[in-house]
Design a protein that fits this description.
Layout lengths: L7 E3 L11 H15 L3 E3 L5 E2 L10 E3 L19 H13 L3 E6 L3 E2 L4 E11 L2 E5 L4 E8 L19 E7 L4 E7 L21 E3 L4 H18 L3 E4 L7 H15 L4 E4 L6 H10 L5 E3 L1 H11 L15 H4 L4 E4 L20 H9 L5 E5 H4 L11 H13 L5 E4 L5 E6 L10 E6 L4 E6 L7 E5 L8 E3 L4 E6 L4 E6 L3
Parallel strand pairs: 1-2, 1-17, 2-5, 5-13, 13-14, 14-15, 15-16, 16-17
Antiparallel strand pairs: 3-4, 6-12, 7-8, 7-9, 7-11, 10-11, 10-12, 18-19, 19-20, 20-25, 21-24, 22-23, 22-25
The structure holds calcium ion.
Length: 484
């Protein structure tokens, strides 16, 4: 029987020490993660990037170098060697944790050689507008991987495999250079007119040789690593249909249902919905709009209408395709999309993703273990408690009490398969108070206590299932049955 309360973890944060130790550390944490009830783990990009063993992973140099070849100044990646990566995946799978590999296809960086190319400069803020005549530039676009010496693949990249670059070496000029005869893909995000180009060498996913190479690579990667699915980077910069075909080929090849979640970084739920439709619901997406609602509530000084916390979110319109999350490696302090949900609101935010029926929640390494370089403390105790609550209490019919702008609550009535199940959640970003809620039949005529320990007095639920539940100022309480 499948577990309705599956949970994911993102097992890295941006500022991890560059000590090549994450794969070994992850393997050692496998049992703990399994005990927490983690079903999916998203690991960072495992291939060599432009920054060698200091590279977080998104500046991809060589997809075939999983910490095996002396390239970019090191053999290992930031996270370890190929062998350590494979052993880490084995250890996780022994605990029945499914492993998602981070797939970065939009761009490549750190070319081995430059070449002369005819290019047109497009307006960086409106890429539909050419601002130069075709002219020769010197582009870093030749990837020959001399350090790998044709192992696994003899494919060599050159300018024909890309749409464009952001650097002309001959003029020492930064702009958006589109190669003559190339067009940005149409089915991408419309920000900046056309957001196909993000950074580095923008991979041309219409080039048949590129498609073939990336499909071959995907097969090699599945065989080599035995991962169970993917987290796909930067998909709003990639035509939607590419991954539909790529995943279909790989599913047929591996005979596996490859769970896939895409990063479409937009707070516009309609953009996310239309991407899902274009991919025929072959993938899930991170609920970026919900992240921004959580961020805004946490920075509202108590002036957030809590009835709207799920307004315009993916989990409210496509719950079966939404991967909900609170923060990630890009929202951390100091990062490009910095929008860190304040610490005081983390109990609210994680209750909102972990204790409800809808969505597949993804907890963040930086919350579980802390971010020492940014003085952000670990929230192990909180997350361990909420994950326990998710796994033991958060079952059955869900009834919302989202009527008051300051205090919201919901009931999970529990079910017969989970002995202690059933719960009441109540929270506020403002002044504390109470809500009367009906807990249904299973919890009728019982005594409930605040599992998070924020309220000391128990709540008595009458024979009709009615109880009055309390919450302190700016707090969350999770009411469950007393285990006598
Ligand atoms: Ca692109």
């Amino acid at each position: 029987m499948s577990n309705p309360n599956e949970t994911m973890i993102q097992f890295f944060e941006w500022y991890l020490p560059a000590d090549c130790s994450l794969w070994n550390k992850t393997a050692m944490e496998a049992e703990y993660l399994s005990d927490l009830g983690i079903n999916y783990i998203w690991l960072p990009p495992a291939y060599k990037g432009i920054g060698g063993n200091a590279e977080v992973g998104y500046g991809v140099y060589d997809l075939y170098d999983l910490g095996e070849f002396d390239q970019k100044g090191s053999v290992k990646t930031k996270y370890g060697s190929k062998e350590e990566y494979i052993n880490c995946i084995k250890a996780l799978k022994q605990y029945r944790i499914k492993v998602l590999a981070d797939i970065v296809f939009n761009q490549k960086m750190g070319a081995d050689e430059s070449e002369k190319v005819i290019a047109i400069e497009d307006n960086p803020i409106n890429r539909n507008q050419a601002i130069s005549e075709p002219h020769e530039i010197t582009a870093w676009t030749k990837f020959t991987f001399p350090g790998r010496n044709n192992t696994y693949s003899d494919f060599k990249w050159n300018w024909t495999h890309f749409h464009g670059v952001d650097w002309d070496e001959s003029q020492k000029k930064s702009s958006v250079f589109r190669f003559y005869g190339k067009h940005w893909d149409e089915s991408v995000d419309k920000e900046k007119g056309n957001f196909d180009y993000l950074m580095g060498c923008d991979v041309d996913l219409n080039n048949v040789d590129v498609v073939e190479e990336l499909t071959n690579w995907g097969k090699w990667y599945l065989q080599t690593t035995n991962v169970d699915g993917f987290r796909i980077d930067a998909i709003k910069h990639i035509r939607a249909s590419f991954f539909v075909d790529w995943l279909k080929d790989l599913s047929e090849f591996s005979q596996k249902n490859l769970f896939t979640v895409g990063e479409y970084w937009s707070s516009n739920v309609y953009s996310l919905k239309s991407y899902l439709e274009e991919t025929n619901n072959a993938i899930s997406l991170f609920d970026v709009p919900l992240h921004y609602n959580l961020f805004n509530a946490s920075h509202s000084n108590g002036h957030f209408d809590m009835r709207t916390i799920f307004s315009n979110t993916l989990v409210s319109v496509a719950p079966e395709r939404a991967v909900t999350f609170v923060d990630n490696h890009d929202t951390e302090p100091g990062q490009s999309l910095e929008s860190w949900v304040s610490d005081w609101f983390k109990p609210h935010a994680y209750s909102l993703i972990l204790l409800r029926k809808e969505g597949l929640p993804c907890i963040f390494y930086g919350d579980l273990y802390g971010i020492p370089t940014k003085q952000i403390s670990a929230k192990k105790e909180l997350l361990e408690k909420l994950l326990y609550a998710r796994n033991h209490f958060a079952y059955g019919t869900q009834t919302d009490y989202f009527n008051d702008p300051n205090i919201i609550g919901w009931v999970r009535e529990g079910d017969s398969e989970h002995y202690m199940s059933g719960m009441v959640v109540i929270m506020t970003v403002s002044t504390g108070g109470c809500l009367q809620m009906n807990v249904g039949k299973r919890l009728a005529n019982s005594v409930l206590y605040d599992y998070l320990g924020n309220m000391q007095e128990p709540v008595y639920v009458d024979q009709d299932g009615n109880g009055i539940f309390y919450v302190k100022d700016g707090s969350v309480s999770v009411w469950v049955k007393k285990d006598l």
